[in-house]
Amino acid sequence: MNHLLSRMSPSVTNMIRMDHTHVLTTFHQYHPDTAPRVKKGLADTVCVALEIHAQLEEEIFYPALRAIADSDFMSKSVPEHDQVRRLISQLRHLQPEETSFDEAFYQLMNAVMHHVADEETLLLPTAERVLAHQLGDLGAEMTKRRLQLTASRGGELAGSMARSMSAGGLVLGAGALLAAGYLLSGSPRAPVRGATRPEPSVSPF
Ligand SMILES: [Fe+2]
Ligand SMILES: [Fe+2]
């Protein structure tokens, strides 16, 4: 493992929390009256962020946790990722001018909020207890893999960022995906609250 990467990476659990924060921030920049081009940019940004995040968890975090803890409590994790992937696929087949685009976007947001709340209230605290001595190495491993995944989707990310930023807002999630920011910011935040059971397809905005 690259020594510099190991020293500068946040722990795996803090990195996952940062990913969650960045994607939820991007979700909250979307409004029904947002311009279609910007809606599409925000949706594309969220979709790529979620795909990379889910892959990182499935390749690095979930196996490490499964190897040491009773895996029953994480039995829903991968099926929920699969549901998110199905919702992403639906969203990608819609046009941002259509009302159904808003509905699909909010459905995706609700599924993600539910999943994030479960991870932050159960999986991450458990990992911090049972994987205490591996959190740094797993964080470095995740950073290394993230750099590979984001490099292969760089053009896609740049395009969606450009569209989403034309609203005048800064999409933190996309910036975070470019990875460098992760290496220097490691502060945890409070878990997501009040999102365990969001009403389906209801916009909170
Ligand atoms: Fe997850
Ligand atoms: Fe997650």
Give your account of this protein's structure:
- The chain is an all-alpha fold and 205 residues long.
- It has one domain.
- It contains 9 helices and no strands.
- The protein has helices at residues 3-8, 12-27, 36-68, 77-92, 99-130, 135-152, 154-164, 172-177, 180-184.
- The model is unreliable at 168-181, 183-188 and 193-205 (pLDDT under 50).
- The structure holds fe (ii) ion (2 copies).
- One fe (ii) ion binds next to helix 2 and helix 3.
Report the average pLDDT across residues. Answer: 83
Give the strand content: under 5%
Give every kind of bound small molecule, once each. Answer: fe (ii) ion
Please bin the fraction of helical residues: 55-70%
**Multimerization state:** single chain
Shape, please? Answer: globular
For the terminal residues, how far apart are their CA atoms?
43 Å
How many domains? The number is: 1
Secondary-structure element sequence?
Answer: HHHHHHHHH
Q: What's the count of strands?
A: 0
Are there runs of 5+ residues with pLDDT below 50, and where? Answer: 168-181, 183-188, 193-205
How can the largest sheet be summarized?
Answer: none
Based on secondary structure, the structural category is mainly alpha
Domain Hemerythrin-like: 13-126
InterPro entries: Hemerythrin-like
Keywords: Membrane, Transmembrane, Transmembrane helix
Transmembrane segments: 167-184
